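As practice, study what follows.
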Amino acid sequence: MEPFMPQLVYVEPQALEYPLGRELLEKFEKMNIEIRETTSHNQIRNLPGDNELQKYRVAKSTLVVGIRRTLKFDTSKPSAEYAIPLATGCMGHCHYCYLQTTLGSKPYIRTYVNLEDIFDQAQKYMDERAPEITRFEAACTSDIVGLDHLTHSLKKTIEFIGQTDLGRLRFVTKYHHVDHLLDAKHNGKTRFRFSVNSRYVIKNFEPATSSFDERLEAAKKVAHAGYPLGFIVAPIYMHDDWQEGYYELFERLSRSLEGVNIPDLTFELIQHRFTKPAKKVIEQRYPKTKLDLDESKRKYKWGRYGIGKYVYKTEEAADLEGTMRQYISQFFPNATIQYFT
């Protein structure tokens, strides 16, 4: 698939006080992309479209160039200590995505240009935790790789973390546009992870993302560039014949990576979950989705900030976890499974 290109760009005036803000404005002007000014992303109104569904799709191709005002980083358990805020929003149309809830009525993409401020704050967190290692997750609120061919914010972050003693960076992606990241001076301190899933899940629930094969080709490039590599299987979803579907996933993954040196391969396993607010939004935005959002088939689990989520019942979750662990043990006996949740 082609790299993301916004159809509409909003620029916050304060963003032009930073080199990256000016660089992006000049870049989009040369591309003849429509550019509008906004004092804040919260002031964006009246996106083109005759109804909410059309406006949502326009928002998904809208980029806001702004600054990150709140420099207190969110926590990001279990994958990292902190979420490093480089962007918010995603160009993908994954039906199950938790951003359906967290972004709500603001599904446009925002990129933050005050990287120096963000890096200064990250350094403070590292200093506070010294001599412990501090891990930062760069993909909590966005698929940052899908945007980085335009901004190179992620590449700058990789190189910033690469020259620290106690920092580590992590992110996950469904996109294969990694070529500009291959020569980054990561010094082995950034773990590059790819989201993978069964054919059924990718086909039915992950529109506007790179194909499985494209992701695997990118993973091989990343491994050859010396990055620590990992895969996130998420969401693990109980579709018809799911055992066979996930067996094939690991079989294809193993075949693709045959002969590639990956000394420290990791897997993270996340079962499908949804919240009541997410269900409402998903059914509005993807009215023909095949995603099963029947609460009666799930177990209710309390989450952060008092917002509960529906996960698989205990026996089903145990079946999912046991099956995934068995497949990974068979095809990747030396890999580390970091968690199942």
Observations:
- The two ends are 31 Å apart (CA to CA).
